[in-house]
Amino acid sequence: MKTALAIRHVAFEDLGSFAEPLVEAGFSIRYVEAGMQAIPAEAAAADLLIVLGGPIGVYQTDDYPFLSDETALIRARIGRDAPTLGVCLGAQLMAAALGARVYPGGAGKEIGFAPITLTDAGRAGALAALVEPEADVLHWHGDSFDLPDGAVLLASSALYAHQAFAVGRRGLALQFHPEAEKDSLERWLIGHTAELSAAGVSLAGLRADAATKAPGLRERSRRFIARWLADVAA
User: Fold this and answer.
1) How many CA atoms lie within 13 A of 209 on its CB side?
2) DSSP result, the chain
3) What percent of the chain has a predicted confidence (pLDDT) above 90?
4) Which of 106, 154, 155, 198, by CA, is between 20 and 30 Å from 126?
5) What CA–CA distances, in Å, run from 122 to 20, 117, 131?
6) What is residue 95's predicted lDDT score, i.e. its pLDDT?
7) Per-residue pLDDT reduced to its tens digit, 144-199
């Protein structure tokens, strides 16, 4: 059986809607708890690495030294074009691993359901399944990044131009959260309460948007990850 290794930074930001399609594609899933568990030796050779989100910054390596280990692992896997998917913080770590600058975003926090716009390259790949028939995804970040040298821009939003990029054939970075599900969102609202309060985000509004938008996102997310897994296996 193939192995999907997921690095998780906070317990409630897990694989979400990605999990079932991964199992259906023949993967066994193993989580590594960042900061609590060392990255296992087999991570470099895992069939798939997924680096999930979290409320810390790539540049906070003095406070969170394990980020340097994650960056080194990502850099090594990208160098071999090994299947690697980064979500939010994971995408920022991928950018940093490729030498790009990661920094607090000039447009402020981007939190909530809002559309992404795909580039021609984005429409030609698996992300097309994520924006049909609608393009709203869950955004939840304050940091942004420069597009790494050699990366291909796949998606933008109204606030941030760099929302997704590809590197090689098997590296994909997503600034947004296609994996988040309605039934688990309440854990996000509790876990990120300080951030939401500081950003002035309406919890009632976010719940209402999740009720109408999250079910469709879940189905599109499942189609997207299934197509991406097929693409990288080809």
Assistant:
1) 17
2) -EEEEEEESSTTSS-GGGHHHHHHTTEEEEEEETTTSPPPGGGGG-SEEEE---SS-TT-TTT-THHHHHHHHHHHHHHTT--EEEETHHHHHHHHHTT--EEE-TT--EEEEEE-EE-HHHHTSGGGGGSSS--EEEEEESEEEPPPTT-EEEEE-SS-S-SEEEETTTEEEESSBSS--GGGHHHHHHHTHHHHHHHT--HHHHHHHHHHHHHHHHHHHHHHHHHHHHHHH-
3) 99
4) 106
5) 24, 9, 10
6) 99
7) 999 999 999 999 999 999 999 999 999 999 999 999 999 999 999 999 999 999 99
Q: What is the pLDDT of residues 98-136, one digit of tens each?
A: 999 999 999 999 999 999 999 999 999 999 999 999 999
CATH code matching the domain that covers 2-233, chosen among 3.40.640.10, 3.40.50.880, 3.20.20.140, 3.40.50.2000: 3.40.50.880
CA-CA distance, 31 to 214, in Å (whole number)?
A: 24
Rounded Cα gap, residues 22 and 4, in angstroms: 8
pLDDT, tens digit (0-9, with 9 covering 90-100), for 69-84: 999 999 999 999 999 9
